[in-house]
Structures are given as structure tokens and as C-alpha cells.
Design goal:
Radius of gyration: 21 Å
Mean pLDDT: 82
CATH superfamily of the largest domain: MFS general substrate transporter like domains
Distance between the termini: 44 Å
CATH class of the largest domain: Mainly Alpha
Number of domains: 2
Strand content: under 5%
Shape: globular
Structural class: mainly alpha
Oligomer: single chain
CATH topology of the largest domain: Growth Hormone, Chain: A
Low-confidence stretches: none
Length: 370
């Protein structure tokens, strides 16, 4: 429904409404796929391997997005980017209904609507404040949205403390392993999604590459992410999540450092280490951070753990676009834009290294079944 609404949107307001519907669908879909995996494979080792396969299957969508999206925009117009989803959904929906075994909790649980609304308002307020600050400085809109975000965040914590069936049981955060896995997952997407966003702007708007060419040039980022996912799952099953997480964070830090010193006219070989560091790093991290979150809670809460981990990653990704976009500024000013790249490269490296330290403090070593 959301894709159809976007593809037929006559106005920007309709397009935004369609994107909201798409977001709601994605929010329901992705945690559900992980919940199916954790119920189908209860053992920690087999869960890690299954999550690796899950990441391997989903990861090709990342290289397909820039390539296919760029081709569709260039040849058929932006509407085709959304309308192409319709035949995919038409095939996937009956397949899911036929193949996926129902794993619902037999105990009746109420949906924590107030908690969900407060969390959404808090995240929206933060994102709006960052975007507004990047465009016009700290004006009334920025302070107002920031205040709303703080109040909603406080309200969310109070609600979750008092709710009989909270959306996020705050007691789980007392587990260092659970909190650490989700913070590392958030750090991964904060730097990763932010870098993908500014890299696309750099190639298309600073260096004036076409959408298709830019998509091809981004393949060294996306292909390793897809190729490494099943390998990471097997490594996690055998050695535990700490090893692949550590390797991924070091590689990601190297990719961020490579942003420092870029100029508007840097050649592709100079830009390649950024893409390889990020792609290899996230390829080693994705399955491992999900497995680390799931194995840190009792088996009956595996679905909740995977949902919280996904929420942490998606929320960080939304913030990343706002923060990175505000730091680099408009690509119409190439010198300022690349100066912003140097800043986010240094900050990104610090975030990766901080996440590495957190990994060693909170994630225990050893096989997933240990």
C-alpha cells in the first residue's frame, strides 16, 4: 500500500505519507523475520548460523538499491523506484502465508501503544532538531523540537517503568551483554548509514556522477557486506560474537579514517578504502551483533531481543542521515562538504573504537552454545 501510494503520489505531502506507511510496514516486517528464525532455531549456535544466512539473503538488496534504483530513475523516472515493489510483494505475501509457521506467544499480550508513540515522538523530535540546526542554526524550531524530544524520552522511560507489559522491559538493559550488543549495533548503523548517505552525495552531487555510475562505484561497499554475512554467522557460532565484532569494528574504523583528506576531485582509488573498510566492517558486524543480543537473554525473549536490536539499528540510522547531513552541509559547496567529510571521518573512527572497547567490556568470548 505504501509503495503504491508513493508511486502514484501527486504531491510531496502524499509522497511523505506513503513513506510513513512504508516505514510502518518495514517496522513490522524486519523484527518478525528475526523472530521466526529464533523460534525455528532455538540453539544459540544454529541461531547464529541462521542469522548469518538471514543477513546474506537481505544484504544483496543494498547493492541492488543504488544500481537498480539509479537505472530506474534514469530510464523510467522516480515513481518506478516505488512501483517495482508491487510485484515483489505480490510474490512474497502468499509465500510467507504458505511457508512461515505461526510462532505467536499463546499468552495474550497487550500492545504498548503509549510507549510506542512516545518513542516515535522522541526520535522524530531529535531528527527534526538536528536537521533544522544543520539548515538554519539553533532557532526556535530547534529548541522546541529538542524540548519535545526530551519530554517524550522522559515520558517513555516513566511509561516503561510502570507498564504491566512494556514495549521495552527496562530490566533487560541491566544486562551488560544486552545493553552492549545494542549500543554497538546502534554505533554500527550510526556511522555506516551516515557514511553511505554522504558517500552517495559525494559521488553524485560533488563529483557529478550519474545515479547508475555512482551505484556501480558503491559496489565495493555493498558486495563485501553481502558476501561476509554467512561467514560471520559461522564464525559467531564457533567462536562467539566478540571476535567478528572486533574485526568488523577495526575495519570500520579504518574506513572512517580514510575519509580524512578527501578533496572534491579525489580519484576513485583514493575513495575506495572508505568503501571497503565500511563494507568489510559491517559485513563482519551485522550478524554478530544480532546474535550477541539474542544470546544475552533467556530463550523465550529471543524475539524481543532481536526486535530491540533492530530498533536500535534503525533509530541510529535515522539519526545518522540527519547528523551527517547537518555536518557536511550542502554538496553545492564542495570545499565545505569535503571539510565536513574530514570531521565525520574522525568522529566515526572514534565511535568505532569506542564500540570496540564496549564489545570487550560487555560481550563474553566463547562459542554461541557455551
Amino acid at each position: 500500500m505504501g509503495s503504491l501510494l508513493c508511486g502514484l503520489a501527486p504531491t510531496i505531502a502524499t509522497l511523505v505519507a506513503g513513506r510513513v506507511v512504508q516505514g510502518l510496514g518495514a517496522a513490522l516486517l524486519l523484527p518478525g523475520t528475526l523472530a521466526v528464525i529464533t523460534h525455528a532455531y532455538p540453539g544459540r549456535g544454529e541461531q547464529a548460523r541462521a542469522v548469518g544466512i538471514w543477513a546474506r539473503v537481505s544484504a544483496p538488496a543494498l547493492p541492488a538499491g543504488p544500481l537498480l534504483g539509479g537505472a530506474l530513475v534514469s530510464w523510467l523516472g522516480w515513481q518506478a523506484v516505488f512501483l517495482i515493489n508491487l510485484p515483489v510483494i505480490a510474490l512474497a505475501a502468499p509465500a510467507a502465508a504458505t511457508l512461515v509457521v505461526e510462532t505467536a506467544d499463546p499468552r495474550s499480550r497487550r500492545l504498548d501503544v503509549p510507549g510506542g508513540v512516545l518513542a516515535a515522538v522522541a526520535l522524530s523530535g531529535v531528527v527534526f532538531a538536528v536537521i533544522s540546526a544543520g539548515h538554519g542554526g539553533a532557532g526556535p524550531a530547534v529548541w522546541g523540537s529538542a524540548a519535545v524530544a526530551v519530554l517524550a524520552g522522559i515520558g517513555f522511560v516513566l511509561r516503561e517503568c510502570r507498564a504491566a507489559e512494556p514495549m521495552l522491559p527496562l530490566g533487560l538493559l541491566r544486562s551488560p551483554a544486552f545493553a552492549g550488543a545494542n549500543l554497538v549495533a546502534a554505533a554500527m548503523n550510526l556511522v555506516g548509514i551516515g557514511t553511505v548517505f554522504v558517500a552517495t552525495l559525494y559521488l553524485q552531487s560533488v563529483q557529478h556522477r550519474s545515479a547508475v555510475v555512482a551505484g556501480v562505484m558503491l559496489l565495493p561497499l555493498f558486495v563485501p557486506l553481502a558476501a561476509l554475512a554467512p561467514i560471520t554467522g559461522r564464525l559467531t557460532a564457533r567462536y562467539g560474537p566478540r571476535l567478528p565484532m572486533s574485526v568488523g569494528l577495526v575495519l570500520g574504523a579504518a574506513g572512517s579514517v580514510a575519509l580524512i583528506g578527501l578533496t572534491p576531485t579525489s580519484g576513485y582509488l583514493r575513495f575506495l578504502p572508505v568503501l571497503l573498510g565500511l563494507g568489510l566492517g559491517m559485513g563482519m558486524l551485522t550478524a554478530a551483533v544480532v546474535a550477541a543480543a539474542v544470546r544475552s537473554v533467556p530463550a523465550e525473549r529471543a524475539g524481543l531481543a532481536s526486535g530491540v536490536n533492530n530498533t536500535a539499528r534503525q533509530a541510529a540510522g535515522a539519526l545518522a542521515v540527519a547528523i551527517y547531513g547537518a555536518v557536511v552541509g550542502s554538496p553545492t559547496d564542495p570545499d565545505r562538504f569535503t571539510s565536513g567529510l574530514h570531521i565525520i571521518g574522525a568522529v566515526g573512527a572514534v565511535v568505532w573504537i569506542a564500540a570496540l572497547a564496549l564489545t570487550w567490556l560487555t560481550i563474553r568470548a566463547g562459542p554461541a552454545d557455551a
